[in-house]
Amino acid sequence: MIPYGTQSITEEDISAVVETLRSSYLTQGPKVTQFETALAEYCGAKYAACTNSATSALHISCLALGLTQGDWLWTSPNSFVASANCGLYCGAKVDFVDIEPTHLNICPDKLEQKLIAAERNGCLPKVIVVVHFAGQPCEMKTIAKLAKQYNFKVIEDASHAIGSSYNNNKTGNGHYSDITVFSFHPVKIITSAEGGCALTNCSKIDNKLKSLRSHGITRDLDLMKSDPEGNWVYEQQELGFNYRMTDLQAALGLSQLSRLDDYITQRHHLANVYDERLKELPVKLPARSTDSYSALHLYPIQLDLDSISLSRAQVFNVLREHDVGVNVHYIPIHLQPFYKKLGFTAGDFPNAEKYYSRALTIPLHPKLQQSDIDYIIYTLKRSLT
Ligand SMILES: *Cc1c(COP(=O)(O)O)cnc(C)c1O
Fold first, then answer.
1. How far, rounded to the nearest angstrom, does the alpha carbon of residue 42 sit from its chain's CA centroid?
2. Which of 203, 223, 279, 364 ranks highest by number of CB atoms within 10 Å?
3. Whose CA is nearest to atom 5 of ligand 1?
């Protein structure tokens, strides 16, 4: 099966992990600090806090921005469930803003309309999680302007989008948001096995993230509430979690980071081949905007169901039967049984639902060979005509 996305591990990656395995730190130690420094530098952010997943980074990011019971968090329905769950972890209420049909990201016009209505009803959101779907940055200028006007915080869920840029700003540099989160899950652009990171330019937020990822404990003498009796003393100052990344993971992530730009160049090369060779087919290809550089985490096509004889499920099955590991991104979050129980229903976010009904993600990752691409295109063509 040709997977839709997969990790690419080199001998250098393996050596980096093995070397760390022979060192005195396995858990969070100097490699994590090194990875954080490299990530911050790559993105042009002041601070980076690594965690054991993007999900935990999203959770403590919400907490660090003060999200709590009674507050609202809004996000895009066209995302992985973690983009919304982080609000519920904090006891906040979650709502969604529908997507725009071109880039499939949160729609700035719909966001503004919803903010106007929420202001009238006294229920403005405290945090909005925008998701750079498939690696394509959202319209951050408008979102940042609305954030100022309506006084909400912005988290960029850039799980798909490390290495992308918008308006010449590298995603993660914090120009348009309070916190940016990356995921290093193996299907993402670079991997640390499991892992995530939250970047910010605010030292207070960074301190809070680093406290919350490790039980709310500090060993920093400058931060202690009372004079320590001895060197063994640590203080728990708030309720935190064990969300730490290990040095083994950081060593892998750090080694992968050195190839990030090459990976994205390769993704662009492959996507250009798809763009060219699929344009005659009854499918809508993913759009790329001129004011941004996508990380191209995914290549989601939309089937023109009116002009083909098979359903989306049938096309999916035919491709899977022929070892093309297609997938679907995403089942709209509000249609998950858990979210339906909270009161959401079909029809709430029609653009996300319409997109989903026709969506199919075809394989895109740097390990694809020309022969794989030929085979994927051949198989897709046959299933559509
Ligand atoms: C993968 C992903 C996450 C979760 O990442 P983990 O590191 O697996 O926790 C969150 N949001 C989006 C958009 C993702 O694609």
1. 17
2. 364
3. 54
Q: Which two tokens stand for residue 278?
A: 């699929």
Query: Which amino acid is it at 7?
Result: Q
Q: Is 185 in the pocket of ligand 1 (CB under 6 A)?
A: yes
Mean pLDDT split into 10-residue runs, the chain, 385 residues: 94 98 96 98 98 98 98 98 98 98 98 98 98 98 98 98 97 98 98 98 97 96 91 96 98 98 97 96 95 97 96 97 97 98 98 98 96 96 91
Tell how strand 153-157 and strand 283-284 pair up: unpaired
Atom 15 of ligand 1 has which residue's CA nearest to it? 159
Domains of the chain plus CATH, in order, are: 2-257 (3.40.640.10), 260-384 (3.90.1150.10)
| Ligand 1 contact via 243 beta carbon (within 6 Å) | no
By most ligand atoms within 8 Å of CB, the mutation choice from 157, 243, 244, 328 for ligand 1 is 157
